[in-house]
Input
Amino acid sequence: ARLLIGEDRISGNPKLNNVAKGWRESRGEIVAMVDSNVLLPADYLSQIMVQFRPDTGLVSSPPAGIRGEGLFGALECAFLNGMQARWQLAADQLGLGFARGQEPGLAARGAGTRGRPAALGHDRGRGCRLDQGGARARVAGAP
Output
């Protein structure tokens, strides 16, 4: 493993800036990106890999909120645990592919995102890059 330090400011989006260096330095065909505050089940990668098909460019998992601290943490949990996951799963079943991976997920390098970390930082940007590469975004079945 290599420790990557320093800031790569490629945009005004701090999350994108944090992902850019790791994306650029990764060597695998499939890259996992997970926020540091996400609790994952032990078999998470197996669960999400089930969604990969030849035309898959990105798999995301709808988030669920737990242990929200304070008013804003409680509001975030209420939002996440309300209808968001249902909407993402329904959209995926209809082929709308609107869920582009704000959540923890996996991205395939050859699916229109190669060398373009900007494709991973914004829902619309990810969608455009995936669509240009002929790839689809998929949603894992459970948060």
Notes: The chain has one domain: 29-139.
